[in-house]
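Continuing the series of single-chain predictions for the mutant panel. This is the parent chain; the variants come on the following pages.
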Amino acid sequence: MVANDRGQLLLIGGIAVAIVVFSTILFAHSLAVTDGITTTGSADTIERSADREASVERDLRRLATETRGDDLDGFEERYGHALRNYTRTHNRVVGSREGTYLNATLNESASLGTTVNQTDTPAEKFKKPGGGGGNKWSLVNESTRIAVFNVTYVNLDGGGNPTTIVVENETDRWTMTLAGTPPGPNKEILVNGVTRCSGSANIDADLLAGTCETPGTSQTYPTFLDELEGPYNITIKHGPQSRVTYLFAAVGDFSDIDSSEKTSYPVVPAVDTTYDTPSASYNRTVLVEVGDG
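Parent structure:
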């Protein structure tokens, strides 16, 4: 915890310097959801503030990337805390110099994203959450952004066609097959038909990073992000043939998953920003793309 706090303080300090240095950065990685003039000023005045806003939104993106890391749990709380620290730093540096003050808060209801997971132990069959789906079920359709896709392959559960994760776009497909020697713990993972890792211990696969790990070994493979353009449709075939735990968070169509089996998660967080300047006071809600560039 001390190391994390120190790292965040260093990040905030670096951003404080960036606030002073960067003043003409174009909008590139965020999207305004709403605009509103809340007190005096004009739309022209607000548009002339684009440089200031772009610099702030660049910092919001850096903060989101730093606070998320590889851990989804507690991201909302960590990011909210970082936004409060950033607001204080901004107002101390910029407010005292220019008279421009900021308030930035996480808007969870306007954020985009959903998470589906099966993380309880012992591991269960790779079946549709809540039951049903048979030998083929849809995890997500038309996904435009995926924050995490981790699978731990625990056991091969019988013969027959092995479990296969199929990722497709309009023209191509990428597959990960959870195979081995049934029944029992002797397992192997194939990507597009090529064996990438194997063993009797649990295999941890990060489908975004392109890694699969067993105790003492780590292998790599080409990811669907490398080989396919989005949006992505992800289907699980023959899920009952394997026992796994998994964690998945993305922006997309989760309509095939029962509402009780999925939860909202800010894959793309929305941040309410309020600016109070000598000539205008106004607010914007922006979507912050995490981890680009």
